[in-house]
């Protein structure tokens, strides 16, 4: 049931991610917490050590592995679930102020337990829907938002971009087929005041799965109409009719 700390540090080093023994220990503990609570909270389908390290922990840090710099001192992780990518990023950047948001109570309960056991500081928890946060107290408040496996890109954009202040960044973690999603999302990206800055694709070294990371910058205020009422972004996603400006 243990992940060897040395092994974690070595695997991370192959991703060009340098971890201290303390950070290695935190990932080892996080692994134990995740597998311990997994049955009760139904947190992840992935249970193998290799898979959790690669597909959850290191994937969450992929941006740094690929030369990206943090986008501020404060991060909001939207639809964090069992803590991805928010908690690995917090372990990697200990001074970060982190906000973990998820609409589901059991996810927030797990996140609270995990953070308490890991003894991490400067973390807040919000059990709330992104749609409400984006029309309420969270609107255009954050400089950096991440989301992994939250929703198709046009939906994720409607949920995330309204939370970001002008000049801030959205890191959208996606699977392989992001190009079609990006074309469909063009209109909502514009309505929400975003601009695509960069796309990065990478392959998980062991599983050989392809992933991508899309970087958006908030360049204009979000149109007042967005995000729409809770549930609508998913039920009636905004789809671009004549997508053009992004390369296919
Ligand atoms: N980011 C995690 C979890 C992905 S599953 C990971 O990559 O493993 C998506 C999560 O988003 C779920 O925990 C779900 O409860 C949450 N979620 C979905 N729609 C949401 C919304 N509108 N507002 C807030 N959280 C949402």
Write a structural description:
The chain is an alpha/beta fold. 42% of the residues are buried. Helix content is 40%, strand content 21%. Strands 3-2-1-4-5-7-6 form a 7-stranded mixed sheet, with helices on both faces. The model has no long low-confidence stretch (mean pLDDT 95). It is built from 10 helices and 7 strands. The radius of gyration is 17 Å and the shape is globular. Strand 6 and strand 7 (210-218) form a beta hairpin. The chain starts with a helix and ends in a 13-residue tail after the last helix. The protein has helices spanning 5-14, 21-41, 49-60, 62-65, 86-92, 105-118, 130-135, 153-160, 178-191, 232-235, and strands spanning 74-78, 97-102, 123-127, 142-148, 164-174, 194-203, 210-218. The protein has a single domain, classed as 3-Layer(aba) Sandwich (Rossmann fold). The structure holds S-adenosyl-L-homocysteine. The site of S-adenosyl-L-homocysteine has 17 residues, from strand 2 and helix 7.
């Amino acid at each position: 049931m243990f992940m060897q700390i040395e092994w974690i540090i070595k695997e991370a080093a192959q991703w060009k991610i340098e971890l201290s023994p303390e950070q290695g220990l935190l990932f080892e503990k996080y692994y134990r917490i995740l597998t311990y609570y997994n049955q009760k909270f139904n947190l992840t389908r992935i249970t193998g050590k290799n898979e959790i390290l690669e597909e959850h922990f290191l994937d969450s840090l992929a941006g740094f592995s690929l030369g990206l710099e943090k986008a501020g001192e404060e991060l909001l992780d939207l639809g964090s679930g069992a803590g991805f990518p928010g908690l690995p990023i917090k372990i990697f950047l200990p001074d970060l102020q982190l906000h973990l948001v998820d609409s589901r109570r059991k996810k927030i309960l797990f996140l609270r337990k995990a953070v308490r056991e890991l003894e991490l500081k400067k973390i807040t928890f919000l059990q709330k829907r992104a749609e409400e946060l984006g029309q309420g107290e969270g609107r255009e408040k954050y400089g950096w938002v991440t989301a992994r496996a939250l929703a198709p890109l046009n939906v994720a954009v409607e949920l995330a971009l309204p939370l970001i202040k002008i000049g801030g960044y959205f890191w959208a973690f996606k699977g392989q087929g992001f190009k079609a999603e990006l074309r469909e999302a063009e209109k909502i990206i514009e309505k929400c005041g975003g601009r695509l800055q960069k796309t990065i694709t990478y392959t998980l070294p062991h599983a050989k799965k392809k992933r991508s990371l899309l970087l958006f910058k908030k360049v204009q205020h979000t149109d007042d109409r967005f995000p729409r009422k809770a549930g609508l972004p998913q039920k009636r996603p905004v789809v671009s009719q004549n997508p053009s400006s992004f390369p296919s």
